[in-house]
Amino acid sequence: NAGVTQTPKFRVLKTGQSMTLLCAQDMNHEYMYWYRQDPGMGLRLIHYSVGEGTTAKGEVPDGYNVSRLKKQNFLLGLESAAPSQTSVYFCASREGKRGAYQETQYFGPGTRLLVL
Amino acid sequence: AQSVTQLGSHVSVSEGALVLLRCNYSSSVPPYLFWYVQYPNQGLQLLLKYTSAATLVKGINGFEAEFKKSETSFHLTKPSAHMSDAAEYFCAVSFIYGKLTFGQGTILTVHP
User: Fold this and answer.
1) Which of A25, A20, A26, A42 is closest to A88 using CA atoms?
2) Which of B49, B97, B102 sits opposite A31 (nearest CB)?
3) B98, A108: Cβ pair inside 8 Å?
4) Which of A61, A73, A86, B99 has its CA 20 to 30 A from that of A19?
5) DSSP secondary-structure letter at A84?
6) Do residue B102 and residue A110 have CB atoms under 8 angstroms apart?
7) CB within 8 A of A61, min separation 6: which ones?
8) Which residues of A touch B44 (CB under 8 A)?
């Protein structure tokens, strides 16, 4: 199993450009998450999904949109990139047992995004 | 609301010395707590997690953590540091839908 994969690994954007980050998992997990990591701030939740066709806002959703059309994929979109969105983005997934907050999240390798 | 505070953004130890990384949490419900490790330019990997089965939790690579409800703490320890332990460590608490709230992270440096 590849686990959680993310594409691309690195991207440079100009302010105002758009892009989509792709996350794929082959573990048949129900729940998927997008986080951003910034120095000294840990990881912060952007959006998450509790199943195919569902999405919900996390802690820092502004400027991002997501879609979960297929169970194995979770897409993160930036419609008009801003320098404040320069960050490392991580996708994660876990099994979807309801109420099982102790289930482990499995993380992808990350996407480094630089917005000029 | 849940929150996590990691005391010390940088910790430096000598090889063979005790490693102690501090984590305090705030949670309105019984917490599920995690420690993740991130090696340079990689994703996060689970070290260990507290799920209420036992207060002393053993993880991978010789790490362990003790849940202390009275102190709202979940500190990570390792008796003897190895050069390969150099990484960034994150404490996190899980809540509804398994969402994780992370601490700020602690960078561990191990000196020869």
Assistant:
1) A42
2) B97
3) no
4) B99
5) G
6) no
7) A46, A47
8) 43, 90, 92, 107
DSSP state string for B56-102: EEE-GGG-EEEEETTTTEEEEEESS--GGG-EEEEEEEE-GGG-EEE
pLDDT in tens, chain A (116 residues): 779 999 999 999 999 999 999 999 999 999 999 999 998 889 999 999 999 999 999 999 999 999 999 999 999 999 999 999 999 999 999 987 666 677 889 999 999 999 99
Nearest to A23 by CA among A87, A58, A71, A74: A74
Amino acid at B29: V
pLDDT, tens digit (0-9, with 9 covering 90-100), for B59-108: 999 999 999 999 999 999 999 999 999 999 999 998 777 889 999 999 99
CA angle B98, B102, B108 (to 5 degrees): 135
- Looking at the partner chain, which of B43, B51, B99 has a beta carbon nearest the beta carbon of A48? B99
A66 within 8 A of A11, measured Cβ to Cβ: no
3-class SS at B20? strand
